[in-house]
Design brief:
By secondary structure, the protein is an alpha/beta fold. It has eight helices and twelve strands. It has a five-stranded mixed beta sheet. It has a four-stranded mixed beta sheet with strand order 4-5-9-10, with no helix packed on it.
């Protein structure tokens, strides 16, 4: 009986199948955690969604920015982009069932001494803070006003957290922190456009997990989103699992408990 956390799949179905064979995954005994971004950029988003959904309680996925973007397009609240590759989902006969299932997935998951998120935990939030703010967002996504949320989701502002933030500004900051965050400065201001490696941080910024006095420093955090890290956060208790499968670099999992890393190469 084992639990494995897996980095961003992004439609890389064949690599996911290879990884599950490598770890000898048994859905009757084992559990999979996914860091989000199940879909987009890769070739088989539909097969990935169907597989993860079919696993029921043997799989847990948090929501990533690509998942949320696909949902916004599905609900007719955003236009697809030229680089989007989730048309197989949007044209599938079970599209509605899959998208409704995806919309109900969590933003954060805590269990077995680990915390699973897509992009990270904002440096000046405690774990309790993060769980509470994620619950605010989950309530909206699972409630009757989810369409309004998707209409207001896009944008980089506000870039600094204040407890007094309200309405869509508050939810936009929360969703950006959980699903888009990479670089942050020592005041807590986010820089959301840069996607390069940690060594290419904008002036005055650093990876969110290197901000001094980070509140959740004692938590074991599993995250994806940042392929340019190539699986190396180099900070104790912070595990970067997006190794850029969709860019040809492979798919990575970590076994909870002993933190063993398992990697399979991308398929040309």
């Amino acid at each position: 009986m084992a639990t494995y956390a897996i980095g961003d799949v992004q439609g890389c179905y064949r690599e996911l199948q290879n990884l599950l064979e490598t770890i000898d995954f048994n859905p009757d005994q084992d559990t999979l955690w996914f860091t989000g971004d199940l879909v987009n950029r890769g070739p088989n988003s539909l097969d990935v969604l169907r597989l993860v959904k079919s696993l029921g309680t043997s799989a847990i996925t948090v929501l990533g920015n690509h998942d949320l973007h696909m949902l916004a397009v599905h609900y007719g609240l955003e236009q697809p982009r030229p680089v989007d590759t989730f048309g197989d989902v949007l044209n599938a006969p079970d599209r509605l069932e899959l998208c409704e299932w995806l919309r109900l997935q969590p933003i954060i998951h805590q269990q077995q001494g680990y915390v699973l998120v897509h992009a990270g935990i904002y440096p000046f939030w405690t774990l309790d803070d993060a769980i509470g703010y994620a619950a605010e967002l989950e309530d909206v996504l699972r409630g009757n006003d989810y369409r309004s949320f998707f209409q207001h989701m896009y944008g980089d502002r506000p870039s600094l957290w204040e407890g007094s933030l309200a309405d869509w500004d508050r939810l936009r900051f929360i969703v950006n922190s959980f699903t888009r965050m990479r670089f942050c400065d020592d005041t807590g201001t986010l820089s959301l456009r840069e996607k390069g490696p940690a060594s290419k941080a904008p002036q005055g910024f650093k990876p969110w997990f290197l901000v001094p006095d980070r509140e959740a420093i004692n938590e074991k955090i599993l995250f994806g989103h940042w392929a340019a890290l190539e699986g190396h956060a180099d900070v104790q208790g912070v595990f970067a699992l997006d190794t850029g499968c969709v860019w040809g670099n492979g798919l990575t999992a970590i076994r909870l408990g002993d933190d063993k890393i398992i990697h399979v190469h991308s398929i040309d």
